[in-house]
Predict the structure of Alpha-L-fucosidase.
Amino acid sequence: MQVTRSQISLFLCLLSCASSLGTRYTPDWASLDARPLPEWYDEVKFGIFVHWGVFSVPAFGSEWFWWYWKAAQSPSYIQFMTKNYPPGFSYTDFAPEFHAQFFDPDEWADIFEASGAKYVVLTSKHHEGFTNWGSPTSWNWNSVDNGPHRDLVGDLGAAIRKRSLHYGLYHSLYEWFNPIYLSDKQSGFKTQEFVEKKAMPELYDLVNRYKPDLIWSDGDWEAPDTYWNSTGFLAWLYNDSPVKDVVVTNDRWGLGCYCKHGGYYNCADKFTPGELPNHKWEKCQSVDTISWGYRRNMKLSEVMDLPSIIKDMVYVVALGGNYLLNVGPTSDGMIAPVFEERLRGIGAWLKVNGEAIYATKPWRVQAENATVPVWYTSKSSTVYAIFTSNPMQNSFKLLMPKTSYNTVVTLLGNPEPLKWAPLQTTGLIVLLPDLPFTPADAWTLKLDEVA
């Protein structure tokens, strides 16, 4: 059969039209998991997590205060309430005390920018169900009709974006004591009234209203993804939402999903793999090692120091992950000085060493125990060797790099090339200058033109 020129033109037009429409994702995991992760997320490496809500008012124990007090009947929580609040005081009575009167979103954004973070993730709603925006499905259990009487999600988002940082929103699918959710749970999740009236309308509202670059889903573990209608929501998010081309999602979309389905993997809280994962991942870690929300009973010994944070971040990035570091603001809207000090300390270290973190890739070897423990990252033919303790000597031996005549070694923050010599097979020995003081107790060797 002879093909006419007009038929060829029509065929080429159809191909062009199909290409312009882009990939359409169907509401099943095989299709959704095939979506490429937007490049910005892998490049930024470091973000700030913010846990803020009604739980910030009692500020005792953890952000799971309501659960431990009422469901778990924890003696310490019951004793705290008995000593400090009158009989009959309910958890909802805390909401009017969530004033946020000192909350200055620009001040927060300045601190986050100074930390060197490239994205910020705020709790839009935790498991208590209180929304930090005027959700139309939350009645008066939200920050516009109660407590602060302002749109916390929108106010912080505007300040974050003025600084060209990416803005993400944490959202808990379930709510501990919502009677509609408990009714669905009682049915064995055969009914979906909570999903249809609360969980999904909130997610659609968040996306359409605030256009987040990232959705950090949580609270999924009691029910399967089929109950949550997760694949339907994600198909809309990737195909038709206002953020379809840039949005990033995690893996908490139903019982059994984490570390298996979704955009990038959180797996468990504070996930720390022992080897290089084969999928993009993120470690969420709190500066307060006990709680994600602010605690008035927090002790300094329970707060991560700067060297520990830097060492943790370097480990995560060397293994291909992103590092999401959490702080919990007070109920009146302040970031505690101890948290601010840690964040600004990270930023000071990243100003010198950031090129070994941002937009890097895992190297063929992630770590070695050389003169001191070393973590590697890479960009093209440049390799970064980050060491998180002072070797206390001038000679520094690296066993893994394969050098050439063109190899140049420098210490980040010091522009002068360092003297080095190759070892017999692979590796090199470097003559270090006096290491500059850094509270982070970490330094980086930059190796250009290595294999």
